[in-house]
Amino acid sequence: MVHARYAALAATAAMGHAKISAQVHRELQAGGTAQDLVVNFRRVDIEALVLPESTDYVHQLVQTLSDHSNKSKQVVADLLGARVESACEDKFFYIDNTYFPCDKLTEAQVRNLAASPHVASIAKAAVMELSPVQSTSNNATVIATANQWGVDKISSPLAWAKGKRGAGVVVANIDTGVRQSHNAVKNNWRADFGWYDPSGGASVTPKDYQGHGSHTMGTIVGQVNGIGVAPDAKWIACVGCSSSSCAQAHLTACAQWLLCPTNSQGVQDCTKAPHVINNSWGSTNGQATWFLPMVAAWRAAGIIPVFSNGNSGSACGTVGSPGMSPDVIGVGASDASDELAYFSSRGPTYDNRIKPDISAPGTDIVSIDFNTDNGYAYMSGTSMAAPHVTGAVAIYLSANPGASYAQVYAALTGSVDKGSLTPNNQNCGGVSDSTYPNNNYGYAKISAQVHRELLVEGVVQEVVVNFVPVNLDSMVLLDASGAYRSGLVDALIAQSKKAKRVVDNVLGIRINGHCDKFFYIDNTFFPCGSLTTNEIRALANSPSVQSISKAVVARVNPLKVTAFESDAAAAAANQWGVDKIQASAVWATNATGTGIVVANIDTGVRLTHEAVSSNWRSDFGWFDPDAGSTTPSDSNGHGTHVMGTIAGQVNGIGVAPGAKWIACLGCPNSSCPQATLTACAQWLLCPTDALGNKDCTKAPHVINNSWGSTDGASTWFEPSISAWRAAGIIPVFSNGNSGNDCGTVGSPGMSPQVIAVGATDSTDGLAYFSSRGPTYDNRIKPDLSAPGVNIVSAYSATDTTYAYINLKHQLLFQTNKIRAVHSIGSVTWNDGLAIQMQAWADTCPGFQHGGPSGWQNLATYDRCGFQECMAIAGAAWLWYDQEETLWNYDTNQCSTGAWADCGHFSNMMSPQVSSMACGWSECGNGNYVWCNYVTPVMYPQVPLSTISKEQLAASLVG
């Protein structure tokens, strides 16, 4: 019996020895004591807990955890007795059932604790790190008031437009604190149960010890300078890191406080817990699991944990902890070009799981600088990426109150954009980086607009599923004869049929399936109606799917040619552009385009116009993908103007008057939906007639495309261009009208496969609006330039009208005419500002002020239609007429006493104004014009008019 008892004691001692970490052993052997310890008591199995379902669930969870912690306190008291020699207070935490002795323990005390069956392990307390890659301060005046690039990249403004800005959601961070008085966050701090500093700080309102926490919180909820993803969310904060280091005891204190907050009097209220917690801290030890019990408690309480993935990147297997946990959303970092940041840690985890879960903007992120109340700073790191996701979660929860972690995770990972990512053959963990999810991007870069709709609504509309396109370079067809195009098209159709089978297998029978669209030219699928999160994910998981994104809406590219002249005003001699490129010299050799078929994808063509009525090729000559009309017509006027310049036969407007023309209506107005453009591209590759009969020999020789997007990195049209090129069709594209600055070339003009054309004026100067290169990948564009200013051509108003005047002429002429009768000098047109104004207008913002900062007038206007713009009183008269009667010429202010009642008049009539610029849109829900003036005063001295108002009104038109 004695021997048996000895054996039992030896076994107990051995088990206690095994509970003590090697670091603690070494410290005890060296000095007989150990400090900075954490004693991990056996934890509550939260998943096994059976708690009654009620609104008080979290409180009952906390009470259960607290009861276990109290038992642990008793174990410590029984084993160690009263530690009267301690000058500090030991810490016990119920959230993970840990004990942090505040000073040294002797070897005997450590071994006594380890021998207890209630103790799971004894280790050195962890120290975590904050590790942004860079930080650069900037004065507030340097930071633009437009949205920061990361906020725009995840399409936060599109969610805001639907009223989803995070209202009703509380976010939190465990970080270095937050500068509560900063202008960006001072108004949305939740003061009650809103701040905890376990490091011992005495501040009763949030402060920041180092700056990192203010920056991350600014990205989540910042309300100024476009820095915050969810600006209407409330925030609370806990100091887990009083420097760039984060002590385990402080992190645990924060985790527990956020599970069930207490106020400064120690009153506890679990209903004050946040909905989502950002954690931009971690350790390079990818096997550390000490934080998992806290994550489990958060998850049980319905709190969403978001963690940065770490900044040890480049090599595989560098993911840190707690980002490596399967129970958190781990976030990698991408840059503005959607490339994975060099520092972003890669997976797999130590147990071979894929991480990160998702990637988000994390390079050169502008947010709060904690040194002043209006300072801003650039920082880079996965620390900056995680807050973008936290903000996105807040938006989703605002739209979907009570959503579970699983629902949030599915929404975040439910739509991806693989197409814009470039695999680099870093196949970490044996997972190819060309398949998703992988250990570089996780589920890849979520397509921003698809992501936004899934977050806000749970479904997405107007989506395009891009299947892997056919590699035309690898195709071997019989020859380059007339049968070549048919063989090419047959091969493309075969691939499209496979894509349709994938959709049928994945989605099954769809209620809206009758109006789904499949296009063989680029192997795309445009679902009719909406797709759910699960449907998006199921499609994205197919190896046949390359990417899923929102369908693009391009625009036609003129500077709003909307006014008209009669045929009498269009000289019978050649127009200046036709002569400039010496077309008549070529005509003299009998080369007028005879035998050539040209086409345009545009707003249509007015078939009956005198300039083009005689050279339309009627067989296989017109396609209207949306409305199905059978003869050419024009919805806007742009397409008729373009075709007139190509092949017009009267008044010297056309370059190739002997050519035949066909057309496809790709832009029903000034907007051009991707599906409609793709339908046109496919029809022009191999035209069909009204009965659906296909004849590839009827394809045109050259296609004009005067439409595009300001997104110079967009490549969605490349497969269509490749098919055209393979079929011997010449693609010509405009280069864009975002000019003046370098790098403004749009797409598809930026493609290396197309002839991209810039615009010149009659003096051979480059037009101010003509977009410049280089392309996003540093290639030269445009390829060449041609006449593009004040071009007279056919217009769709009547069969004999021609256009070159635009709304600019009306606005400038009528403004100066009105100023002149008040003896005020003329203003000039500010070309540089006009580009910015038009860029704002082209976003179709509706009836609201915005765009470039300054003194701005806004009005609706009448699209000129059958009348010349110069023949009607426009916005300038509207602003003047309505407010001039209120102007007090004696006091130089509005007679109502409110400046805003005469603000339009004051802006336009101020003698101090030297120039103006306007932008206008004919999209969305109306026709709107915005004009900025440089630079008026609020109360200008305006002389009286020299003529009556009736006389002035009559002088403006005619």
From TrEMBL:
Gene3D superfamilies associated with the record: CAP, Peptidase S8/S53 domain
Catalysed reactions, semicolon-separated: Hydrolysis of proteins with broad specificity for peptide bonds, and a preference for a large uncharged residue in P1. Hydrolyzes peptide amides
Q: What EC number(s) would the UniProt record show?
A: 3.4.21.62
Q: Where is the SCP domain?
A: 806-936
Q: Which domain of life is it from?
A: Eukaryota
Give the PROSITE patterns listed for this entry: SUBTILASE, SUBTILASE_SER
Q: Which residues form the active site?
A: 175, 212, 383
What GO biological process, any one, is recorded here?
proteolysis
Q: Which UniProt keywords apply?
A: Hydrolase, Protease, Serine protease
Q: Name one GO molecular function term.
A: serine-type endopeptidase activity
Q: Which family would the database say this protein is a member of? A: Belongs to the peptidase S8 family.
Fetch the PANTHER family from UniProt.
EGF-LIKE DOMAIN-CONTAINING PROTEIN (PTHR43806:SF67), PEPTIDASE S8 (PTHR43806)
Please identify the protein, giving its name as recorded.
Answer: subtilisin
